[in-house]
Design a protein that fits this description.
Strand content: 15-25%
Distance between the termini: 62 Å
Helix content: 25-40%
Structural class: alpha/beta
Number of domains: 2
Radius of gyration: 25 Å
Number of strands: 21
Largest sheet: 11 strands, mixed
Number of helices: 16
Length: 565
């Protein structure tokens, strides 16, 4: 495990100390449990109706220092058992339930940081909602949901998806947040498998199909041509009267290719809820007022508040279907529709876990992604990064913070620290250099998310004010005072980020280097450092960075007033 953390950019002398730090104090692996119904394949092959390729992809890749350990729980009628050494992507847990217990008496889900649900049951039969809770569909029980909800409320991250009609509802439709973020039941208004109301995202594979001269075949779902998607501006603010700075949500942000704006296509997708009705797909607005009660004291609001803060789900991507006519889809006529495709919930702001839902598991299945991967290029790189980004974003907050600490420490023994972190550099300069270093690993969107999360540890109210100023996230309807656009006195977000990072780096440098700048002596101190010291340094450093930013702002405002009279 230790060798998977790349140190090829770090000076040789620092390798042992950094590896020992990781071994002693900090996890670099996110533990993910895929929960699948028996109808979802775990086998390899280009035409496999399952998620084998995505599981392998997560196991084989990393984001910065974050790596992903993936096991599979098969939800079936068999008695619960544990497979000691499953081969490939075969399940580790048979007959799995969310309240399954290991021989040592601990819950299986307590061994994991994230649970990803790929449900199929009750069936692909267009039946009534009563089928969802039929015993043969293995619906999630109150006891299961009590265990899962308590785990989610302890910051466990959940991803869930199904497909058209009520596919996946038996497992997922009563999970808090998951059940209201995505349409699972007929009562909610799930889109059908056929007819004009289906959500058909198949794209033409050749010029004749694009011109409406030939049929767009059903099997276009398996070709190398993905659908374009419409990403939502998560960060949006004016840099000047003529320039607006926009970025997608971190889940849809590639570190070098920009917004993730493609997804595999399919002739009949599902849909997620938005904050407004979606008349094109006959879907009402999301329900935000539900409470849950699974017994055993597991009760509460689906979307809780922490003080005055109530995080809410947000749509981060929309899809569009192509109109038939003028195009000719193999499944028949279908008017053009815009629909909500992916949404997320940042529960960390309320001290609960994050959640994400997707309109369909066909964005994930071998049968839909193999040819896109074979073709390679930017389309596959973006889609692949979507899977990895979700794994990073859903992780409980201590895991990305652990990786952040590691990147801070290793930066002192890599190019940024050796060359740029010199005694005459101010905190803004150091912070901006380290910010660029982080961008290489995670991309700018994730770095913004993480810095805002760091600020929340020190000053939650400031985090909310920054959200209001720089981000476009849904909030309860509260009166917001009008603000000028552009805001001439609002500091650029880059300066806010550099100030926070620079303050923490300077505080950490004081621990590692104390009265001298010797690499050798700093490595001795690195071998003695512990997470508690870094937690304190984080608090002190972020506060110092924000104080420096306030001082800079006051001086700038004074000069501006002098200039303008």
């Amino acid at each position: 495990m230790l060798n998977e953390v790349s140190l090829d950019h770090v000076i040789d002398a620092a390798h042992p100390a950094l590896q020992e730090y990781i071994r002693k104090f900090r996890h670099t692996h996110v533990r993910i449990l895929f929960v699948v119904d028996t109808e979802i394949s775990l086998s390899s092959g280009a035409n496999a109706f399952g998620v084998e390729r995505v599981i392998r992809l997560l196991r084989e890749n990393s984001v910065g220092c974050m790596h992903f350990h993936v096991d599979v729980g098969l939800r079936s009628s068999a008695s619960f058992s544990v497979v000691a050494s499953p081969t490939g992507t075969n399940p580790k847990y048979l007959g799995f339930r969310f309240n399954s217990v290991l021989p040592n008496g601990t819950l299986v889900i307590d061994q994991y940081d994230e649970v990803w649900c790929f449900g199929f049951k009750p069936a692909n039969d267009n039946g009534p909602d009563t089928n969802i809770t039929a015993p043969g569909a293995l619906p999630a029980s109150n006891t299961e949901l009590a265990a899962l909800t308590a785990w989610m409320n302890n910051k466990g991250g959940v991803f869930a998806t199904g497909d058209h009609d009520y596919l996946g509802a038996s497992m997922c439709h009563r999970i808090p947040r998951v059940g209201t973020m995505r349409a699972w039941t007929n009562a909610q208004g799930v889109p059908p498998i056929s007819g004009t109301q289906r959500i058909d995202t198949n794209r033409p594979g050749n010029n004749a199909e694009a011109a409406g001269d030939e049929v767009i075949e059903f099997e276009r779902q398996s070709d190398a041509v993905p659908q374009s998607i419409e990403w939502v501006a998560w960060m949006s603010h004016f840099h000047s009267p003529w320039r607006v700075h926009r970025r997608p949500h971190p889940v849809l942000c590639h570190p070098t290719l920009g917004p993730i704006d493609v997804m595999p296509d399919h002739p009949h997708e599902g849909v997620v809820f938005d904050h407004v009705p979606q008349p094109a797909v006959n879907l009402a607005a999301i329900t935000l007022t539900n409470n849950y009660n699974f017994g055993g004291g597991v009760t509460g609001s689906e979307y809780p508040s922490l003080g005055s803060v109530q995080p809410l789900p947000m749509v981060i991507a929309y899809g569009r279907t192509l109109a038939d006519p003028p195009l000719i889809h193999e499944k028949g006529d279908s008017p053009a529709k815009r629909f909500a495709m992916i949404n997320v919930y940042d529960g960390h702001a309320a001290n609960v876990g994050r959640v994400a839902t997707d309109s369909t598991w066909h964005h994930w299945m071998n049968i839909n992604i193999t040819q896109v991967e074979t073709a390679g290029g930017n389309n596959w790189e973006k889609i692949k990064r979507y899977y990895l980004n979700l794994a990073v974003w859903l992780a409980p907050p201590h895991l990305p913070r652990s990786c952040f600490y590691y990147h801070v420490l290793e930066s002192f023994y890599a190019y940024p620290g050796i060359v740029e972190f010199h005694a005459r550099a101010d905190s803004l300069e150091i912070g901006n250099t380290f910010r660029a270093h982080l961008h290489k690993h995670y991309g700018p969107c994730w770095v913004t998310q993480f810095i805002f999360d760091l600020i929340a540890l020190v000053d939650p109210k400031l985090r909310e004010r920054l959200n209001e100023r720089y981000l476009r996230i849904p909030t309860p309807k509260l009166p917001i005072p009008p603000r000028p656009e552009p805001c001439l006195t609002c500091p650029p977000l880059e300066i806010v980020e550099a100030s926070v990072l620079g303050g923490f780096l300077q505080t950490t440098a004081g621990i590692l280097f104390e009265k001298d700048s010797s690499i050798e002596n700093s490595l001795k101190r690195l071998s003695e450092i512990n997470p508690d010291k870094l937690d304190k340094a984080l608090q002190t450093g972020v506060e110092a960075g924000l104080k420096n930013l306030n001082s800079l702002y006051a001086k700038s405002l004074k000069l501006s007033k002098q200039l303008l009279g």
